Each structure stands twice: as C-alpha cells, then as structure tokens.
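chain below, 355 aa
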Amino acid sequence: MTTAFDPIDLAGTRLQNRIAMAPMTRSRAHSEDRTPNALVAEYYAQRASAGLIITEGTQPSAVGQGYPNTPGLHSAEQTAAWREVTDAVHARGGTIFAQLMHTGRIGHPDLLDGDLHPVGPSAVRAGGQLYTLDGLKDFVTPRELSGDEVRATVAEFAAAARNAVAAGFDGVEIHGANGYLVHQFLAAGSNHRTDEWGGSVENRIRFAVEVVKAVAAEIGPERTGLRISPANTLNDIAETDSEETYTALVAAIDLLGIAYLHIMEAAPAVRELTLALRKQFSGTFVLNPATEGPTGAASLALIEDGTADMVAYGQLFIANPDLPARLKNDGPYNTPDRASFYGGDHRGYTDYPAL
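prediction:
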C-alpha cells in the first residue's frame, strides 16, 4: 500500500514524501520593490521536510498584486532575492515551486504603483472588501483587459516562470483558483466577454490553457503545475457549469503533460467532481481536501485509497514546521493560532492563511 511517507516521482523530480505544503499568503515583502527577505528564507527552509513546498502567491506583474506586501517575480531584484530562499530550501534537501498569482479584480489601486488599476476579464466588480495599508476598502470595478492585453498577460506569466527558474525554483504553480484572474476568466459570473476569451466553455477556459501552454513552453511541462478550485465561491465567484468547465479544462491541460494538477476542494460536496477530474488527469494529482478545521492526519488516507497522489497541508504547516514528522508519529501538534491569521489592520497579513 502506498503511504504519504513514500517518495514519489514528480515528472522526473524525486520528492521525499507525498505531503505538500499548500501556498499561503504571508505578506512579508515589506520593501518598495516587493522582494522576499531573510525571514522568508528562514520560514521556507524550516519546512523543507515537505515533499513539495508551494510558495505564497507571487505576482507575475506589478498590476497583479492584490494584497499588501506580497512578493513579485517580475523584476531582476525580485529574482535575485528569491535565490536566497531557494538556496536555503535546497540546502536542507527540499523541493520548492513558486506559485504565480495574478489577483485580477481582487485588489485596490492603493496597493499598486503609479496610476495602475486592477484589471479583469470584464468590468465586473467583486462584492466585498480587502485590507490595504490604510485599512479595509471596497473592491473597485476592474478595467477590462483588451484582447492584446490578455495576450500580454499570458506572456507575463511565462516571463515570471522564467524568472522563477533563474531564481532557483524547481518549478512553478499557476494559481487558477480562489477567485483570482485565471479563475475570473473561467467563471461566467466574472467573465462577460463576447470575444475569443469569453462566452462558451471553450472560450472561458482559453486563458487558463494559454497560460499553462506558455509557462510549459518557457520552462518545461515537467516544471509546471496548475491549481484550481471547482465550484469555489471565494472572492465573489459565481460558476453555473463547474462540471462542464473543469472537465474541459483538465482535458485540455492533460494533453500538455504538466507535472501536476492541484485541487483545492471548496466543500465536501465537490468530492464527486474531484474524483472525476482525478481519473481524467494523467499526471500527479495533489489534493487540498475539504475538511472541518485544518487538514489533519485523517486526510493521509486519501493517498492510501488512491484519491490523491499527494495531500496539501496549509494551516498546520504554519504552526508545525516539521509537519511530516509529526504526521508520521501521530503528533503532537501545535494548534494554529487563528488570531494571528486575521488582523484588524494590514499587520494581520503577516500570518495570513492559505489562499
């Protein structure tokens, strides 16, 4: 029987176990150029016993930033700074992928430089608010991307992936989940376009497929992963045809031979679709399962019964840097301090949980 503590081949990279560290926004890039620092390097190095570390969401362009103090991978300074992080992880035997996260309409002009304004597939404002350095503010109506700008955004993802490899990352994960830009194109509620990038399922999945294609062409499919969250309503996303949309998307990306597909389950009711997508996808299948409270040791059974090849853990990795060892020994576990995850001002983003 395969267990979570067995090694796994990830498209040619041998991982020491099947426990992934889920991407969690940390907002520790406090410098004006949005570069990671020594604290970021220490944080990830402490967790190098994970089979795979997936970093916090990292913007592929300046306009892709949606939260205070999140790092980028679109400048030479950022690329150089990430090298300290990857070197620290590799020195402890870890494997680390950078998550590329363009937040699209989930942002605010106060977080962006100059006259930049959040963008999206359509000029549809998300309901809700987000933290800025000046406190909570309403989301704004995004500026609709033109066709040429959509193609330029695809190219920005590829350029950021190239920077990630130059920075020493073992690969990248494209964030196509949780209501951010790629997800906004997938969902009819946020994508009202009538051109090649909207309308039909085939057109709405096009942006995600083109981003995956561009990244895989730039750094190799064996270094490329995709995260999705079918039927997830986070960040005011409205999907009316999740099964059709994600079946078509996974069919398209499976042809590209990418390293892995990472699903964040929005709710237990999505498990049937999760299993269907698992059967569709021929690469490594990573699951961040829907659970009550933080994902715990019980979810390791999902590897044993074949539901997933790897299980991703979020909050427990914050409180337990040596989580694989604790899972193997059935504890003890430090309890995640949720008061430190969410704050009444921007300082709360220092310990923000998995998105």
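Confidence is low (pLDDT under 50) at residues 341-355. The chain has twelve helices and 14 strands.
thats it, cya
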